[in-house]
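PROTEIN DATA CARD
Card holder: Peptidyl-tRNA hydrolase
Chain length: 192
Origin: Actinomadura barringtoniae
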Amino acid sequence: MVSADLWLVVGLGNPGPSYAGNRHNVGFMVLDALAARVGGKFKAHRSRAEVIEGRLAGTRVILAKPRSYMNESGGPVKGLRDFYKVPVERLVVVHDELDIPYGAVRLKQGGGDNGHNGLRSITKSLADKDYLRVRFGVGRPPGRMDPAAFVLKDFSGTERKDLDLDVDRAADAVEALMAQGLAAAQNTFHAS
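Structure generated from the sequence above:
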């Protein structure tokens, strides 16, 4: 039986302290901000993820951070979706996005992976690309830097000045998406 009133919000990142401040881990950072709002602590789940069950935006939610590396996120996400029986239209994936300026937040449903290995893995595992996405802009790499190397570097000192506020704004976007729907949340967060 599908859990029609339950949301699954997954933040993407790589496990371990050496990756904690990387641009690629901003999905984990947003989930940590949401966890603080729920007032819970992440606990191991058999789907190879850390989860918190709680309430956000007046509804039931599972917050999750896969314990796999980014490019293997699909297995844990599919495991969570199957375990909790969450329909794809209530699955939200929070991730970094190179093609959006630093700190900007964009929301969409479906689409391609745009070279993002975490999204590619999820789409392949689910055999469905119509899940919701909250995309946190990390900007393009400087000069000729390889994008893969860029996302595995920590945020710059300049970026870190506003990082907490920007992460909170992305967490606000997740709550708006759950409470108001995609179009209303886009109107709010794409305007700025």
